[in-house]
Specification:
fumarase; about 180 residues; about 30% helix; alpha/beta; 6 helices; about 25% strand
Length: about 180
């Protein structure tokens, strides 16, 4: 396991160097989206319409940040449980999405799609919402303002701390952790 500095948009070269368990500091532009926004994105793809942001090389962070206080860029911004987006993720990966950020394991269908489409899943540490928010340097709503905290935001992040859970070779940090624990018994 190594520590890697990444900058968005992600490309094949960056993705190919990552291994499950790596610590990552991610910088650049990422987008926020949760369940309702994902449903709308998939509907736009199905209808052949333009998306509110380019998926090519993009990273989506599953978060619904708390309302900002005066002078704050963003308030607490902890990860949402990722499996809630699993229904929508394979199609987004097919259309160029390269990374997702959340917490908890992903379905086999999503993991298989990451392998076939060259995507990666990062985990943000749950319970560290205030710390994660400090890596956000700029935030603006770019779509679906009616969804409130679940609106799609464009975030500019600097050295956002993450871990690679699923790499493009199909490795899974959660499965490896369980396997290692069982060997120690």
């Amino acid at each position: 396991m190594k520590t890697v500095e990444l900058r968005t948009p992600l490309d094949e070269r960056q993705i190919s160097q990552l291994e499950s368990g790596d610590k990552v500091f991610l910088s650049g532009v990422i987008y926020t989206a949760r369940d309702a926004a994902h449903k709308r994105l998939v509907a736009l793809i199905d209808e052949g319409k333009e998306l509110p942001f380019d998926l090519k090389g993009a990273v989506i962070y599953y978060v619904g940040p708390a309302p900002s206080k005066p002078g704050q860029v963003i308030n607490s911004a902890g990860p949402t449980t990722s499996y809630r987006m699993d229904l929508f993720t394979p199609l987004l990966l097919e259309h160029g999405l390269k990374g997702t950020i959340g917490k908890g394991p992903r379905s086999k269908k999503v993991r298989d799609s990451m392998v076939s489409n060259g995507g990666v899943y990062f985990a943000a540490v749950g319970g560290a919402a205030a710390g994660i928010a400090s890596s956000v340097k700029k935030a603006e709503i770019i779509a679906y303002d009616d969804l409130g905290p679940e609106a799609i935001r464009k975030l500019v992040v600097e050295r956002m701390p993450l871990f690679v859970v699923n790499d493009i070779r199909g490795n899974d940090l959660f499965e490896a952790g369980v396997s290692n624990y069982r060997r120690e018994e």
